[in-house]
Amino acid sequence: GSLERRVWEAKEEVEQDHYVQCDRCQRWYHYICAAFPDPAQLPPEWGLDSQTLCCSACVASADPARAAQLLRQPGSSLLRALQRRSASDLPSCATSDAVEAHVAVEIAAAGVQASGLVVRVVSQRLYHCRAVAGMKVRYGADYPDSFPYRSKALFAFQEVDGADVCVFALYVQEYDAACPRPNTNRTYISYLDSTRWLHTSPPGQRSVVYHAIVNGYLQYAGAAGFSHAHLWVEPPKAGDEYIFYCRRPDPAHGSRPMPTSQLRAWY
Fold this sequence. Notes:
By secondary structure, this protein is α+β, with helices and mostly antiparallel strands. The chain is 26% helix and 23% strand. The protein has a 5-stranded mixed β-sheet, with helices on one face. The chain has a two-stranded antiparallel ribbon with strand order 1-2. It starts with 18 loop residues before the first strand and ends with a helix. The model has no long low-confidence stretch (mean pLDDT 86).
């Protein structure tokens, strides 16, 4: 018999990358390359689409007086203010302050420097984890119906060549004293991920810094009243990533997943 020939058609044709045009040279730039904030992530009343964009190439090619004029041209003040934001401008909190302070002490004791490192809690929300039906059957009607917890996303940034680079991410679930047993005063590190872009002195000391961030969080958790900390250790499968994606293959391991024993040894 003959094979039926069909033309594959995508169900959704959505442009995943966004571009913006320089109002001076008319060149198109990817949002990230132009340090252009995504208007969809900002209040509509800010009117970011109406702001005047002058790309860095135009500013760099102009003489100092003209460059200063380009940076002060009408209709660009809001955009310029947003482009000048840095990770250090993000609000700090007790968690990030404690982790930053611990990291500074621990890496200094190890003789390591990581200049421009900033730690911030970028997301903090309350959730309820519903109890699995089987647990009610096993432990009886008195077993709690749900467990309230606070989800936190803790990120570390480093300024590299004038740009903030996200180098580390930690997702935790905090079940405090108000949470019923058996989860009372327990914190759970659900996801942890890092990149190879961290710059240290001496070079190649990323693990020292990343360990210090984890240790700093655990020290903070203990001081905050948490009595237990749980850590899920399972490397992602080949082709999967927990937080950061589209990363280059590891020079030592290629695209092969890290063995579980090696990851456990890292912790």
